[in-house]
Amino acid sequence: MDLIYCFIIFFFVILLLVILYIVFSKAKQGIDQRRVSQLEYEIQPIVDKYMESKSEAVISDNEIVDLRKKVQSRAGLQAFNSIYFAKVKQEGVTERLHQLVTLILDFQTLNNNRIVRNKYRKSYILYLCAEYYMNSEEVTKFAIESLHDPSLYVRNNALRVLRNTGEVDNLIKAYQRISQGQMYFNDKVIVDYMDSFRGDMQELNKALARNLITFSPKIQRDIIEHFTNCHISKYANEILSLIETSRDMEIIIAGIRYFGVVHKQEAYSFIVHQFKSENYEIRAVCARAIGLYPCEKTIELLHEYIKDTNWFVRYNCAFTLFQLEEENIFHKDSSIGKVLSEEDMFARDIMIYTLYSKGLINSDNDQVTLASFQIENGGKGGEERWV
Q: Quick one: which of 11, 98, 253, 276 has the most CB atoms within 10 Å?
């Protein structure tokens, strides 16, 4: 019995300690929040006064010193962050707001602040550097070194800092570092940061094209995708040269997609040749890209590969034929009509499916009607005929 009483007492002691911890934590949170709110109340008028004026002299040296002192504390930095992000939401990142940040914040202030736990501090510092568009040499060095950090969040925020500096050299150094290392970076993140570079986009594109062959295949693919997204035709020769000599399937696919958006007649023979690839993904992307090069040879290839063993290749061929023949679709001698008359059941089915998905076919049991012509199932032999 004594042992049972001991266990009960021990349980209630632990329960009491947990309750006290929760109560004290809540009380501390409340005190911290009131402190942050008080500092916001003190900082807000100074920020507003600075933002409404065109002169830096509108706030005194004492006020600047006071602001710098406040943001060195955890609560002070939280208060300033709250005011800053509210301004950004209302007005965007204006030059005036950036000048204010430069006056009162620097990398060492952020690095010495214990605003979050040590586990997340490096990532959060980089996040704030990116949000504040800091581009000092100290910040750049810290961000480049952080590209090899074990944490994905740290690496992504480091790349974002370098994107936001607006310096082409910084981003090129970052891609060289990534190319040399083994750390994972999501392709979409890399491409998004290229597409949304904060500096001179033309200079960035020039530097990417100039250094294209020095990067790893992963970065090369991402650069090609960036050029595709932005419809950059100026460096088509560099991309064609790369994919003609590359054995990397993803680079070849990215390059073919690029030439399906950016027209370059010299790339046509490469696309035609890749139709013979054993890899269905390459054949499928060729079937889409070749639609940018309408000619008799293109139609012949689409007719040939709409009978491919792979569904995606057949569908892309049918889709491209539809795009090329859209204005001539109701003509009985059109390419689409010829496919629908084919003996190959899979070619007919994928063409019918494509037309149905475009809303040009009404399907009712075993009958398919297409505008001015009709294909009906024949009798016992299951043959199809034009009427």
A: 253
For residue 178, give the nearest of 225, 223, 130, 136 by alpha carbon: 223
Among candidate residues 270, 330, 358, 342, the one with its CA nearest the CA of residue 304: 342
CA-angle at 337, arms to 331 and 342, nearest 5°:
160
Instruction: Give the closest residue to 374 by CA, choosing from 327, 328, 341.
Output: 341
DSSP string, 33-99: HHHHHHHHHHHHHHHHHHHH-S-GGGS-HHHHHHHHHHHTSHHHHHHHHHHHHHHHHHH-S-HHHHH
Going by their DSSP bridges, the two strands 362-364 and 367-370 should be labelled as: antiparallel
For Cα atoms 197, 144, 163, give the angle at the middle one, nearest 5 degrees: 10
pLDDT in tens, 280-334: 999 999 999 999 999 999 999 999 999 999 999 999 999 999 988 876 666 667 7
Q: 226: phi > 0 → left, psi -120 to 50 → alpha, else beta; which?
A: alpha
> At residue 154, what are phi and psi to the nearest 5 degrees?
-65, -45
Contact status, residue 305 vs residue 319, Cβ threshold 8 Å: no
CA distance linking residue 192 with residue 249, whole number of Å: 22
Q: Which two tokens stand for residue 252?
A: 């070849």
User: Cα–Cα distance between 331 and 326 in angstroms, integer?
Assistant: 10
Radius of gyration of the chain (CA): 31
> pLDDT (tens digit, 9 = 90+) per residue, 24-50?
777 766 766 788 888 888 899 988 888
The pTM of the full predicted model, rounded to 2 decimals, is: 0.82
- Integer Cα distance of 322 and 318 in angstroms: 6
Q: For the chain, what's the residue count?
A: 387
Q: Is 370 helix (H, G, I), strand (E, B) or coil?
A: strand
Q: According to DSSP H, which parts of the chain are helical? A: 2-52, 61-71, 74-91, 95-104, 107-112, 118-131, 137-145, 152-165, 168-180, 187-195, 201-210, 217-229, 236-245, 249-259, 268-274, 280-289, 296-305, 311-325, 335-340, 345-357
Tell me the one-letter amino acid at 365. Answer: N
Which structure tokens are listed for 249? Answer: 């399937």
